[in-house]
Write a structure and sequence with these properties.
Number of helices: 21
Mean pLDDT: 89
Strand content: 5-15%
Strand order of the largest sheet: 3-4-5-2-1-8-9
Helix content: 40-55%
Distance between the termini: 81 Å
Radius of gyration: 28 Å
CATH class of the largest domain: Alpha Beta
Low-confidence stretches: 1-7
CATH superfamily of the largest domain: Beta Polymerase, domain 2
Length: 421
């Protein structure tokens, strides 16, 4: 058993080992113990492309029991599939035994696996660029550094995303691979191999049978990527969007998605996508509820999406004509700014007028959401009892404060006393 090399205590402490350092040390330990071991999967792809990798996986001929015997801190999260987590220096590395998969009766996981060779392990993977192995112990420019059984290196250089082997078989094994192809090609700015693209279109409707939670997570990952717009465009081009959103096929323009700021939250992206798909956006249209079901939105995401859609509708139809206090109450909501940015795509003149009005409201010496002069506790101290009148008094007091009709606490107390009596 080996451990990471400790620094000389007489020297300044360097930064701790990276995840890659830990993975390489795991490979060194496995090699020293007589096993074959490589970096595998997405980390190899990203390293060869010069991109930062977040997860480092190791593939080896060592069995799960053997892996656990060689490392002190392990966890068996998928021992039946040959997967062991090895923990060291604050990092968790997935170490998997080379395997070949049996049939996929649930279109998600193989019914059985058998431990096998690196070549068989590569040929069971989804896309060729994800099926490369890398030997980090070889010199950087050595021909032996990359192990390629499926033509993944050529596809990497050509910037092509291609299914390993028969694309129909790969997609039938796990229907989510179709959406993953759009997300990955979008992130990497790759083109999808025509045969793979045709197979994805043939299998697109099968996404409706995939767990909505898995689909939602994949779409969130796509949204967080720098290739978000490309991924969503590919999702449409590959005929996946209707199954992903559980809607009828539509022809989105993607104008709103393209113009969305890079820091936009996931619900804002969904609102932009709905606008681009010409989906009815009235607050009572039920769109937020539909997306909640189709993408397993969290309560917070559902509320955010609902508010963005509602604010967009109000901005479009009536916000500029509302009284000052009503404008301020709506504009104080954090989702208002996202609704305004979406409005600017199709009606920049109206959005500019709304933005100018917003600037006036913010700079009037009162602000959009000043602390209330009186609270519910204050009303109770004045003898009010909670109920419909109680809320009405608080609302009226705060509206007057927002308009500038109430400037101080004594005036607010006097007005409240008259309303309570």
């Amino acid at each position: 058993m080996s451990s990471l090399r400790m620094p000389d205590p007489s020297l300044p402490s360097p930064p701790g080992p990276t995840a890659r350092d830990v993975a390489v040390e795991i490979i060194r330990t496995l090699r020293d113990s007589g096993h074959e071991a490589y970096l595998a999967g997405g980390c190899v792809r990203d390293e060869l492309l010069g991109l930062p990798a977040s997860d480092f996986d190791v593939a080896t001929d060592a069995t799960p029991d053997r892996i656990r015997s060689l490392f002190r801190r392990t966890a068996a999260v998928g021992a039946s599939f040959g997967v062991i987590l090895v923990k060291d220096a604050g990092h968790v590395i997935e170490v998997a035994t080379f395997r070949a998969d049996g049939s996929y009766s649930d279109s998600r996981r193989p019914d059985s696996v058998r431990f096998s060779t690196p070549e068989e392990d590569a040929k069971r993977r989804d896309f060729t660029v994800n099926a490369l192995f890398l030997d980090p112990l070889q010199p950087p420019h050595s021909d032996a550094r990359v192990i390629d059984f499926v033509g993944g290196l050529a596809d990497l250089h050509a910037r092509v995303l291609r299914a390993v082997g028969d694309p129909d078989r790969r997609l039938a094994e796990d229907h989510l691979r179709a959406l993953r192809a759009a997300r990955l090609a979008g992130r990497l700015d790759f083109r999808v191999d025509p045969a793979t693209a045709d197979a994805i279109r043939r299998h697109a409707s099968e996404l409706r049978g995939v767990s909505r939670e898995r689909i939602g997570d994949e779409l969130r990952t796509m949204h967080a990527s720098t290739g978000r717009v490309r991924g969503i465009a590919l999702m449409h081009d590959l005929a996946l969007d209707a199954a992903v959103l559980d809607e009828k096929p539509l022809s989105p323009s993607l104008d709103h998605v393209r113009r969305l700021p890079s820091d936009a939250p996931f619900p804002a992206m969904l609102a932009a996508l709905a606008l681009d798909r010409a989906t009815p956006l009235l607050p009572d249209s039920g769109l937020a509820n539909r997306y909640r079901r189709s993408l397993c939105l969290s309560n917070e995401e559902h509320v955010d999406l609902s508010r963005i859609l509602a604010h967009h509708a109000i901005l479009r139809d009536q916000w500029l004509n509302l009284e000052m206090h009503a404008q301020k109450r709506i504009a104080a909501d954090a989702r208002f700014s996202w609704a305004l940015s979406l409005l600017a795509v199709r009606d920049p003149e109206l959005a500019a007028r709304a933005d100018a009005r917003l600037a006036v409201l913010r700079s009037d010496g009162i602000g959009l959401a000043p602390p209330p002069l009186l609270t519910g506790d204050d009303l109770i101290a004045l003898g009010a009892k909670p109920g419909p009148l109680f809320k009405s008094i608080l609302d009226d007091l705060y509206n007057a404060q927002l308009r500038g009709d109430l400037h101080d606490r004594p005036a607010a107390v006097e007005l409240a006393r008259r309303r309570i009596v």
